[in-house]
Specification:
Blueprint (H helix, E strand, L loop, with lengths): L2 E2 L7 E6 L22 E8 L11 E3 L20 E7 L6 E8 L9 E4 L20 E7 L9 E9 L11 E4 L13 E8 L4 E4 L2 E6 L13 H5 L4 E7 L8 E8 L5 E12 L7 H6 L14 E13 L4 H16 L7 H11 L9 E7 L2 E6 L13 H21 L3 E6 L2 H13 L10 E2 L16 E6 L13 E4 L4 E3 L14 H21 L9 H33 L21 H4 L2 H6 L6 H8 L2 H11 L5 H16 L21 E4 L41 E2 L12 H14 L3 H26 L3 H17 L8 H12 L3 H13 L6 H13 L8 H30 L14 H23 L7 H15 L15 H9 L1 H13 L10 H8 L9 H4 L17 H4 L10 E7 L2 E3 L4 E3 L1 H7 L9 E2 L6 E2 L2 E8 L15 E2 L13 E3 L6 H8 L4 E2 L8 E5 L3 H15 L8 H5 L1 H14 L30 E7 L13 H9 L17 H12 L3 H13 L11 H13 L4 H19 L1 H6 L7 H9 L7
Parallel strand pairs: 18-25, 20-22, 20-23, 21-22, 27-37
Antiparallel strand pairs: 1-26, 2-13, 2-17, 3-5, 4-5, 6-8, 7-8, 9-11, 10-11, 12-14, 14-17, 15-16, 16-17, 18-19, 23-24, 27-32, 28-29, 30-31, 32-36, 33-35, 34-37
Helix pairs in contact: 3-4, 5-6, 5-7, 7-8, 8-13, 15-16, 15-17, 15-30, 15-32, 15-39, 16-17, 17-18, 17-19, 18-19, 21-22, 22-29, 23-24, 28-39, 30-32, 33-36, 34-35, 35-37, 36-37
Amino acid sequence: MTEEKCPQLVDYFVVAGLEGGSAQLDEEGQQRGGRVVEPVTDLAVIARGLGEEVPEGFTCIEKTQGGHPAELSAGLINNPHMYLCYRRGHDKPPILDLGVHYEGKEPTKPGWRVIETTPYSRSASLSSGGPTTHRTFLMYRRAPDSQALNTLGITDISLVMPSKGETAPHTFCRVDKNLNTGMWGPALYLCYKRAMAKANALVYEAGLISRYPEDDLDSFPLPDSVPIFCLPMGVTVESWPLNTKYQLPVFSTFVLTSACGDKVYGAAIQFYEAFPRDRLSERQSVHLGLVSVVDRRPITNRSLQVKKSICVLSHWPFFTVFQKFLTFIYRYSISGPHVLPLEKHISSFMHNVPFPSPQRPRILVQLSPYDNLLLCQPVSSPLPLSGASFVKLLQNLGPENSCALLLAVLTEHKLLLHSLRPDVLTSVSEALVAMVFPLRWQCPYIPLCPLRLADVLCAPMPFIVGVHSSYFDLYNPPQDVVCIDLDTNTIFQSEDKKPLSWRSLPRKHSKTLLTSLTNLHKTLEKIYMPGQEEATLEFLLTDYDLIYGRQKQLELEIQEAFLRFMSCLLRGYRTYLLPITQAPSERTTDCSSLFNLQGFLKSRDRTQQKFYAQLTRTQMFTQFIEECSFVSDRHTCLEFFDECVQKVIVDVEKPEDVRLIDLDESHSGEHTVFIMPPEEPQEADGSESPALYSYETFPILQPDLFDRPQDQLRVPARGSAPSSPAPRRTKQEIKLAQKRAQKYSSVPDMWSKCLLGHCYGLWFIYLPTFVRAECAKVRALHTAYEVLKHMETRKVVLPDEVCYRILMQLCGQYGQPVLAVRVLLEMKKAGITPNTITYGYYNKAVLESKWPSTNQGGRLRWAKLRNVLVAVAQFRQPVKQRRKSSSVGSCACPLSIRTAPRRLTRSLTASASLTGEMAGEGGGGPWYRGKHAGDRMSCLFFCSCLVVLPSPRAESSTFSPSRLCSRVLGPREAQGRKAVDENSNNMPSPSRGLAGKLQQLLTPTRHRALVRRAASVDDRKPGGGPIPGRRVSEQLDLTMVNAHILLQVLMSSCSLCRKCNSLVYDEEIMAGWTSDDSNLNSTCPFCSATFVPLLNAEICDLGPACRYRHASSPSTLALGVRASVEQSASAHFYGLAILSTNEFCRVWVPCVLCWRMNRVVPLVTVAYLSPLVLRKELESLLENEGEAVLSQGQLLDNHSIIFWNLVWYFQRLGLPSNLLQLLHSSELTTQLSQVLQPGDGNAVVRVRLLWDTLTPDTDQWPPLYVLWRIHSGMPMRNYSWRRHNHPFTLAFLEEVLRCVGMNEVHKAITLFLDTVAKQPGTPRVQRSLYREILFLTLAVMGKDHVAAFDKKYKAAYTRLSGSLGRDELRRKRAQPPSPKAVDCRRCFLVPLEC
C-alpha cells in the first residue's frame, strides 16, 4: 500500500521581482522599453469648410482606416467639412472613454463632457439640427485628477466606414452609434484604443527574490519559470510625479502544466514600491527623467518605483481565496509596526488551513481581527476541476462569439486572447479548453504568457495563448493567429481567412446551444452584481449562499449547455470503437485500427461532413479515441460523458430539457471550521509584547521566522495500492447503481435479481484474492468465466460492469488474452456495451498479454489423445456399474494390511491431486460435479481416512459401511445412524406420490426402517459396544494415518423482531431491505417495525478419533455427524474436495470420529448486511487497508461482520472461496480443543446454512418440526425442548400432515389456530403459522415440496380470508410471505436446511 498525504491547500509562497544581487541595473533595460505612446488628453472638432485650422499640438484625423475622407459631416447639405482632432500628453489625466450623444433623445451621462463647440466657438454638432432631427455631438470621459499614474487610457483614435468594407482595427473599441445622421452618405463610426498610460520605464525580466518552503516538495518541485509568470510583462522601474496617487495592486492568475498533464494554479498580485536612485546609471536616470538632459542636474519632483509580485502556487483553483490572502499579506507589509512578523501569517495559512472536505465543508479563516475569508468545498461534479469561469466567458464574449470560439477550439486554430485584465485571461482560457469536454487540448496552452515566451506565437502548431494587451504596443501578432480581445468583445483575423462563424457548426445542435447561451446571457445581465462586499463576518456566514448561489448555479448551467452540445456532437461514437480481438501488431494502437472513422462519418448528416472531417483529424480527437480504448487517468470523466450521451439519445427530440450535471449534495453541510490567526506572544509578566516588525518594502523572507508544519495536516492516509487488480467503482457507477436499486426496490421479481447481482459483484471483488491463492490460476479464471455464463443464464441484474472488468484485468495479469476476448463476447451477448473503464482494461489485457502461438498442431494432437481417453473411460463405465451392482456394499477399495502407511499416504495424495485436476477440467464450474468424478473423490477421501482395515474375516471380502458402524458402535447405535440416513433422503420415492409418502411417514418410529438392514449386521449384541475381548485399536486402528481435522460451521440468518417477538427468516429479511446502501435495517413483515437482522455462526470441532486413541472408555467413540445428514447443496468441503450430500454420506459415514457433547462451542453474532450495504463496506475496507486484508487473519478478527457476511453469501450461491481457511489462525478456534494449524492446507471445513435460528428460545413452545423429530427419536442439537408442556401431540402432528397431504391446508391452519386458542394465556409461539407448517412438511417430505406448499398455503389463506378476515389472520401471523419474499427465496436457488 502507498501512503498519500492529505491535500494541501497551498504548496509554495513566492516573492518575485528584481533580484538584489546586482548593485546597478543592466543597461539592456533601455532596449526593452518598446514604443511608449502617450495617452490622449484633449479632443476637438474643427470645421475646415468654415476656415478653422488644426489647433497647435493637436493631430487631425483626415482619413478613415481604409483611406477614405474622414469628414464627420459628409451627410449634411451644407457640408462644413468637420474633422476630429486629438492631443497627447501627460499634463492632464487621460481620456478614458469616447461616445456619441444624441441631444434630446437621451440624457447626458454623469461624468461625461459633451463637445458642443469648436475651438473657434462655433457649433460642433455633426447633424443639420432641423426640427425633425436631433443634434449629434461627441462626448468623452476623463480620468479624475486623483487617478493613479498607471491607469487605462485612450492611446489612439480611428474612424471606419463599414459600407466600404472597413472594420475596427485590432484592439480597438467601436462606438456603435452612427456619426452620419444625414439622408445620404456612408455610415461613419468612431473607434478608439485603450492601453496602459505608462510613464517612462525600464523593463527587465523577473527573478526569484525569496520563497517558502526553501526545499522543493517531492511531488512538485518549484518550476524556475514561476517569477516570469508572476510578472508576465517584466519588472518595470518607473519614475512618477510626486503627487501621483498610490497605485492599487493588480491581481493576476496563471496555469502551469507539467509534463504528465497535471495543472498547477498560480495567483499573484503585482504592486509598486520605492526604489533607490543610487542603483541607476546616469543613462538610465536620463531615460527615466530623473536627470536633466543638458546639465545633468537631478530632478527632485519625481519618485522612483519598481514593480514586485507575491504569489501562491496550489493544485486547487481557489483564486478568490488566494486574492484575499495575498491582499492581506501585502497590506500587512505596508502597515505596522506589528508584534508578529509577516512570516508567521504565511506559515499559519499554509500549514493550519485544511483543505475543505465533506467533514468540514466550510472553513472560516480569521487572518486578523479585521480580516477574514471563507473557504468552501468545491462543487462535487464528475467534470474535471479547473479554474474556468463560464460566467466571465459569456460576459466578455457574448453568445455568438462564444460559439465561434467553440468552433475554433474544435478545429484547432491558433488562438491569442488578450486583455488589460490579467485575471480574466486565465478564467476565460480555462473555460475555452473546458467547454470542449470530453476532448482535451493537446497543443501549447499558456493562459497568461510572459513576454519572454512570446515566441510561441510563431509556432507552426495550434495553441491557446493569453497575453496582456500591452503586448501589442511592442509587437504585432502573426497573420495566421486569431486574436480575441476580451475587453472589446471582438475577434480579429487576417483578411485572407474565412471569418469564424458559429454557423459552421452542425446546424441543429448549434442553434440549441446559441439559444441556451442567449437566455443565460440575459439572465446574467440581470443578476450579476459586481463589487460585492465580502469583508464582514456577518456577510460570510449569512449572505454567501444567497448572493453567490445564483451565480454558481448559472455557472453550471452555462457549462451544461456546452456539455449538451458535445454530447449531441459525439452521439453514438462508442458504436464505432474497434476492440482488439487478435494478436497485436505494429498498427494495432493506431487510431484507424481503434475507431471506424468512415462508419462514424457516414452516420452524420451530409451537410456536416466537412466539419466532422476537420474534427476527426485533430490531435484532440485522436487522443480521445486512445483514452477511450485504453486505461486512462480520465476514465471517470469519460464514463460520465458516456452517461450524458445516453441521456441525450433517450431525449433526442428535446435535448435542452435533459439535466446532465447532477450535483452531489450528500456531502454538503453547514458545518463551519474556524481557523484563528496566530497567537501573539506575551511578556513574562503577562503584558503585550512590543511591536517590532515594520517594513519599508516587502521583505526578503526569513526561514527562521516561519512556524513548522503541524502533524495533523500531514498524517499519512492509507489507500488501496495503485496496482490493485480490482478496479473500484467510480462515483458515477455508484450513483447509477443506487438509482437502479431504488427503481427495482418496488418491483418484487427485479428486487431479488438486484440483490443477486450485488452478491455476484461481491464475489468478483474477492476474485483477485481467490485467484492469487489458487495454484491453478488459469482454472480459477475459467471458473469465473463459467460464473459469468451462469449469471447470463439466470438473467441476473448487474448494478455495474465491475464483474466483467475485474475478470478482464485478471486475464491480462495472468496472460489469458483469448479468455478476455471471450469475456467481451459474453458481455455483448448479455446486451451490455462496455463503458470507457471496462473497455480500457479489456484492450490493455489483450494488448499486453502474450498470445498463444498460431501453430495448433501440438494442441490438436493432445486434444485428440484426450478425447480418446475420455471415450475409453465412457465405454468402460457400464462394466463398472454391473460389477458394482453385483456386490453388496459400496466402495471396492481393498487395501493390504501390510501396506506401509507413509507410502500409501503419498500415493493417495498424488492420486487425489490428479483426480481433482481431471474433475476440475471436466466440471467447468462449481455447479457441475460429475458423478464419476464424485465417486473417485469419495473413494480417495475414504482411503485417505482409512488406511488399515479390520483383521480379515470370512465376511470381509467386501467392505460395508454398515458393518464398520456396527463393529464400532454396536447394532443399536448403527441402526439409529441408519434411521437418520433414511430420514435424510429427501428424494421422493418413484412409486409413491405425496399422499403415499405422507401415509408412510405418519407413524414415526425408528425401528420400522431398520429391521431389514439389521439382518445384514453380524454383531447384534443388545447392549451395543465393541466385540468382547478385543480392543478398539484392534477393531480400527487409525493412529498410523495423518487424518484431517474437520471443522463444521453452522450459520443462520433467522432474526428476532423485538417488537412483536416474531422470528423473521432469510427471504423476509431480504424483502424488507431498502435500496439505501447505508441502511442496516430490515422491516418486520408482521408489525412493520424496523430492526437490524443478525447473522449467527456456530463453529464445531469434529476432530478425528486418532487424537483420542488413549481414551479409557469405548463409549467415547461415536459417529462425528451432528443430528441428521440432510441433503443440502449448501454443504461444502474445503480442502481435499467439495462434496455433495450423497458423496458426503459415502465418505463421512465410514470415518470414525469423536463426538464431544460437553464442548463449549464458539458462537459468533454479527449484523446481517444487505448486499448493497456489504458491498459499500467492502469497497471502503479495500480502499483503506488494501486488498491484502482479504487473505489475512485480521479480516476475521477485526472485520468479522464483513467476513461472515461474505461467507454466507458465497455459500448461498455455491461460489468458491478461501475465506474459511482464515479460521486456522483465528482466535475463535482457540476455544476448541483441537486447533487448526495455519500450515495445514488439507484441513476440511464444512459449512451448513440453516433456515431456523441457531439459538432458539427454550422458554417458548418448540416448533412442530422439532417435535416430529423428537417423536421420531432423531438426535437433536438441543434436548431442552423435552421439558416443555405444549399442546402439540403426536396425533396433532399427524393430523396436520394428513391435511397437507390431502391438499386441505386450510384445515391444518384452522386446527393450529383452534389448538393454540384453547391454551390459557399468551401463546408462546415465535414462528408464524406458515413457518410452523412449512418446516414440519420439510422435515417429513424434503425440500423439493416448498414451491408446491406455497401454492397450497396461499390458496388456503385466500379461502380463510373470507370467513376469518385478513386482519384477524394477520394478527395471528397466519399470512403467507409476500411476493417479494417468495421471489427472493426463489432467486437464491439453493434452499436452506431446516
